[in-house]
TrEMBL record, chain A:
Physiological role: Catalyzes the conversion of 2 pyruvate molecules into acetolactate in the first common step of the biosynthetic pathway of the branched-amino acids such as leucine, isoleucine, and valine.
Enzyme class, first EC level, given as a word: transferase
Alphabetically ordered keywords of this record: Amino-acid biosynthesis, Branched-chain amino acid biosynthesis, Transferase
Transmembrane parts of this sequence: none
Molecular-function GO term, any one: acetolactate synthase activity
Xref: InterPro entries: Acetalactate_synth_ssu, Acetolactate_synth_ssu_C, ACT_dom, AHAS_ACT, AHAS_small-like_ACT
Protein name: Acetolactate synthase small subunit
Assembly and binders: Dimer of large and small chains.
PANTHER family on file: ACETOLACTATE SYNTHASE SMALL SUBUNIT, ACETOLACTATE SYNTHASE SMALL SUBUNIT 1, CHLOROPLASTIC
TrEMBL record, chain B:
Pathway given in the UniProt record: Amino-acid biosynthesis; L-isoleucine biosynthesis; L-isoleucine from 2-oxobutanoate: step 1/4; Amino-acid biosynthesis; L-valine biosynthesis; L-valine from pyruvate: step 1/4
UniProt enzyme class: transferase
Keyword terms, alphabetized: Amino-acid biosynthesis, Branched-chain amino acid biosynthesis, Magnesium, Metal-binding, Thiamine pyrophosphate, Transferase
Keyword match DNA-binding: no
Organism: Falsiroseomonas tokyonensis
Family: Belongs to the TPP enzyme family.
Domain Thiamine pyrophosphate enzyme N-terminal TPP-binding intervals: 15-130
Molecular function terms, GO-annotated: acetolactate synthase activity
Name of this chain's protein: Acetolactate synthase
């Protein structure tokens, strides 16, 4: 690889693929086989008849590597479209997290106060635990988890990022 | 499929899945299939037994089936076809599949699979074939529904031959082969695939930019690769036309040999690690480089940071992921090499800007001084046969014979000497494992070539180590009376390993000596062929002539100098202008840095 290590960047890439067996393995195998990073990856069918899936990948690399990642993805037979949302312009990135906090007494009160500040909802409660649901970008979820750690953070489940470009333009096949 | 299946469902199904496979192969133009039977593919073998349209060639190892199909594909431009069983049949084929992927060879490989209800149960001869072959193929399929069989076969051929060609695997569970299945015709060429649509026609604005750059060139070079061969013979003709039109020097990659005639005065020879002095110095000193269908492979570029430092680069490639992968280029053009060359010729003629003829003449004078170095010279003295001399005499004597000649090779020193000393005037005459470097490629590939061209002269230039990796195919040659010639440069060493150990590892020849070699003459005879041997220079021409005159499989065991190295050589981690030349010639720096030592 020619040296262009100066411009390392993060990229959020949306990929529309045929919803068929093995397609996710092709994408993940491409990343591991060629030594690319995957920071997060989400996938689900997105059209009415469930023939198309949308994969959102957050990755990072030099400009040359990110261009390679997109070209390599586009080369896979079941891939319809590859879009680099980081280049496409302003876009929204969200993930969903379910966060279990275990504790009693003053810790429970503090947990609820912080959850309120972060607009996290209580979706399950017992006398010694809460499960919070929150959406936001990765930094927001990270910050919430960091605050909950001394209060009794017990378990976290996160979806990874989903993303979409702002405005009327739409990614379709 | 959804449009055709209701229609198909209204008719009684009369064909088994296996019969549907064979019908689809026939409709895709398959005439020959290379394979080896086993439990999971017995239904296909039963269907093969009951038809005459497709000829089956029984190999002796599945890896050889794939290489034979590669030889067939590369020498004809058609898709090669392979049939192997599940489990070990499929895993044995993997090396060949990856070889075809790296060299962009169109293949369809049918693999048997355990019945669908047993998949995942660790059944006898079960392997996760689609999982194993995913990174070794352009695409693969596991067929789980009878109504998909015909569509998948048609689609597999389309994927294999279009865009950047490559191998495609179809994994066929045994119940799918036995059960009745509907036949559907191949979709018309006008109906595009849902997601796979390779670009073949170039962006004309990019072509014009490229031509404008080339008109300004003072020290140009055309560096042409396997993409020109894969585009078809017309692309090679257009490359010749474009070279004449521009007067530019042309060099070929290992994969591109034959795309430009070796006898043409504008040809510089092969470039890269064992390329010619003139080709590599032209690459290093050029101001405009046209890469036509090559991929800036590490064997070609040498040290990337010192690669063609003063050149503006144009890269024409059918695969967008090849562009800016190793080398950043000023003008990328995505498309088919033949179409791009045709467009360039048209734009060059239309463009009123005159090329820089005086500067080009000065460039050619410079090139002629580099050529004067005569970097491929060697000294043939005394009785011991120099390997270079053996290849050169083989080339000269086959040329005198006037026969259409196809050369395959194994991998190593003999392969590089073949590339350096055997000239090719036409495309599709040279079959070698370039990307993967697979020892054992040459003999089965030659088999596939001979099947496709029964009357041609087909020679596997081999080393005594490589040839043993698929020697069992001598039996296939005998069975089908294929008069393939195996020309072994026998130096009793894995020569390229020995050479690197001499140059990079202090002459510690660890495990590179070919001990306990067979008697190749007796070996040929035991496989119903003819064995010949030359141990002295005076015998060489006679052995070659006798080999060519023999209409049977031949092994010619040529005892060559044991310690000969392959030069010129760009040591790993070095730049094009740091070549090591042969003994008695001044060269660049012969040292290898620690950084270079880690490179392969």
């Amino acid at each position: 690889m020619a040296d262009d290590s100066g411009n390392f960047r993060s990229a959020t890439i949306a990929v529309l693929v045929e919803n068929e067996a093995g397609v996710l393995a092709r994408v993940i195998g491409l990343f591991s086989g060629r030594g690319y990073n995957i920071e997060s990856l989400t996938v689900a069918p997105v059209d009415e008849d469930r023939r198309l899936s949308r994969i959102t990948i957050v990755t990072s690399g030099t400009e040359m590597v990110i261009e390679q990642i997109k070209a390599q993805l586009d080369r896979l037979v079941p891939v319809h479209k590859v879009s680099d949302l980081t280049l496409a312009g302003p876009h929204l990135v969200r993930e969903l997290a379910l966060i279990k906090v275990v504790g009693s007494g003053e810790h429970r009160v503090e947990a609820l106060r912080l959850a309120d500040a972060f607009r996290a909802r209580v979706v399950d409660a017992t006398t010694e635990s809460f499960v919070f649901e929150m959406t936001g970008n990765a930094e927001k979820v990270d910050a919430f988890c960091a605050l909950m750690r001394p209060i009794g953070l017990a378990e976290v489940s996160r979806t990874g990022a989903v993303a979409i470009v702002r405005g009327s333009s739409a990614l379709s096949v | 499929m959804s449009a055709t299946s209701p229609h198909a469902a209204t008719q009684p199904l009369t064909m088994s899945g296996a019969e549907v496979v064979l019908r689809a192969l026939k409709d895709q133009g398959v005439e020959v299939i290379f394979g080896y039977p086993g439990g999971a593919v017995l239904p296909i073998y039963d269907a093969i037994f009951q038809q005459n349209a497709i000829r089956h060639i029984l190999v002796r190892h599945e890896q050889a089936a794939v290489h034979a199909a590669e030889g067939y594909a590369r020498s004809t431009g058609k898709v090669g076809c392979v049939l192997v069983t599940s489990g070990p049949g499929a895993t044995n084929a993997v090396t060949g599949l990856l070889d075809a992927l790296m060299d962009s060879i169109p293949l369809v490989c049918l693999t048997g699979q355990v019945p669908t209800h047993l998949i995942g149960n660790d059944a006898f001869q079960e392997a996760d074939t689609t999982g194993i072959t995913r990174p070794a193929t352009k695409h693969n399929y596991l067929v789980k529904r009878s109504e998909d069989v015909a569509r998948v076969v048609h689609e597999a051929f389309h994927v294999a031959r279009s865009g950047r060609p490559g191998p495609v695997v179809i994994d066929l569970p045994k119940d799918i082969l036995i059960n009745k299945a509907p036949y559907v015709e191949a979709p018309p060429a006008t109906q595009p695939h849902r997601s796979y649509r390779p670009v073949t026609a170039p962006d004309m604005a990019q072509v014009r930019k490229a031509v404008a750059l080339m008109k300004q060139a003072e020290r140009p070079v055309i560096y042409a690769g396997g993409g020109v061969i894969n585009s078809g013979p017309e692309a090679s003709r257009l490359l010749g036309e474009f070279a004449r039109l521009t007067g530019f020097p042309v060099t070929n990659t290992l994969m591109g040999l034959g795309a430009f005639p070796s006898q043409d005065p504008q040809f510089l020879g092969m470039l890269g690690m064992h390329g010619t002095y003139e080709a590599n110095l032209v690459m290093h000193g050029c101001d405009v480089m046209l890469n036509m269908g090559a991929r800036f492979d590490d064997r070609v570029t040498g040290k990337l940071s010192h690669f063609a430092p003063t050149a503006k680069k144009i890269h024409a490639d059918i695969d967008p992921s090849s562009i800016n992968k190793n080398v950043k280029v000023e003008v990328p053009i995505v498309g088919d090499a033949g179409q791009i060359l045709a467009a360039m010729i048209q734009v060059w003629k239309e463009d009123s800007q005159p090329p820089k003829r005086e500067a080009l003449a000065a460039w050619w004078r410079q090139i002629d001084t580099w050529r004067g170095k005569n970097c491929l010279q060697y000294v043939q003295q005394g009785k011991i046969i120099k390997p270079q001399h053996a290849v050169k005499r083989l080339y000269e004597i086959t040329r005198e014979s006037g026969r259409d000649t196809f050369i395959t090779t194994e991998v190593g020193q003999h392969q590089m000497w073949a590339a350096q000393y055997f000239g090719f005037e036409k495309p599709n005459r040279w079959m070698t494992s370039g990307g993967l470097g697979t020892m054992g490629y040459g003999l089965p590939a030659a088999m596939g070539v001979q099947i496709a061209h029964p009357d041609a002269l087909v020679i596997d230039i081999a080393g005594e180590a490589s040839i043993l990796m698929n020697i069992q195919e001598m039996a296939t040659l005998a069975q089908y009376r294929l008069p393939v010639k195996v020309f072994i440069l026998n130096n009793e060493y894995m020569g390229m390993v020995r050479q690197w150990q001499e140059l990079l590892h202090g002459g510690r020849y660890s495990e590179s000596y070919s001990a306990a070699l067979p008697d190749f003459v007796k070996l040929a005879e035991s496989f119903h062929g003819v064995g010949l041997r030359a141990t002295e220079e005076s015998q060489l021409d006679d052995v070659i002539r006798e080999m060519l005159a023999t209409d049977r499989p031949v092994i010619a065991d040529i005892a060559v100098a044991k310690d000969e190295n392959c030069f010129p050589m760009i040591p790993s981690g070095a730049a094009h202008n740091e070549m090591i030349l042969g003994p008695g010639q001044e060269g660049g720096v012969a040292g290898v840095t620690d950084e270079g030592k880690v490179l392969v």
